[in-house]
TrEMBL record:
Alphabetized InterPro entries for the sequence: NAD(P)-bd_dom, NAD(P)-bd_dom_sf
Pfam families: NAD_binding_10
Top-level lineage group: Bacteria
Domain NAD(P)-binding: residue ranges: 8-189
Protein name: SDR family oxidoreductase
Length: 211
């Protein structure tokens, strides 16, 4: 049976994905720096592994078929952590995945990484890092799907999205719960290799949009 590695499993989206897989007893390895952050999550096929993404975390890829990279440096850190986590750790994850012949690598990126120069302000270093990480994955030969959500909210998920970028900025958000649901669908869906999806709140069922 395929086993999935969740990188960034203690983040909000990572916890949602990990919980969903654990509850259905699907084999999953949750990679975190601190195991205590996942104490409320339980499952007979759940394995929690501690590792620092700034170091060597190659052992986490042993026996993995799928990888979801949803780690991030966080909005309160500086450009140094953005570089080390959102770019360098992502690059290392791609290298480890390639060495282990991973069948599917799903990268959580961001809307706007296709053209970081179009968006100024404090978020630009983050977008540049994500842009470079995405490019590295696309050129690696590892089977991939890129997910680029709009601004994230903690609203309750509706299970309905759109992949067409709205015309107005105030319509570009998406709930973390709906991003997690989209990741879970991509994990089980064949034929999504080499595809890039921007995600926004919408009116379409996830399974009818991500094709």
């Amino acid at each position: 049976m395929n086993k999935t590695l969740i990188i960034g499993a203690s983040g909000q989206i990572g916890q949602m994905v990990t919980t969903a897989l654990a509850e259905t007893d699907q084999p999953v390895r949750a990679l975190v720096r601190d195991k205590t952050k996942l104490e409320p999550i339980a499952g007979s096929q759940l394995e929690i592994m501690e590792a620092d993404l700034e170091g060597d975390f190659s052992a986490a890829f042993d026996g993995m078929s799928n990888v979801i990279f949803c780690a991030g440096s966080g909005g309160t850190t500086g450009a140094d952590k953005t570089l080390l986590i959102d770019l360098w750790a992502a690059k290392k994850a791609v290298d480890y995945a390639k060495k282990q012949s991973v069948k599917k690598f799903v990268m959580v990126s961001s809307m706007g990484v296709d053209d970081p120069d179009a968006i100024g302000g404090d978020i630009k270093p983050y977008l540049v890092a994500k842009h470079m990480a995405d490019q590295y994955l696309m050129e690696s030969g590892v089977p991939y799907t890129l997910v680029r959500p709009g601004p994230l909210t903690n609203d309750e998920g509706q299970g309905k999205i759109t992949i067409k970028r709205p015309a107005h900025v105030d319509e570009m958000s998406i709930s973390r719960e709906d991003v997690a649901k989209s990741l879970l669908f991509i994990l089980t869906k064949e034929g999504l290799d080499s595809k890039i999806f921007e995600l926004f709140n919408g009116t379409y069922e996830v399974e009818n949009v991500l094709v």
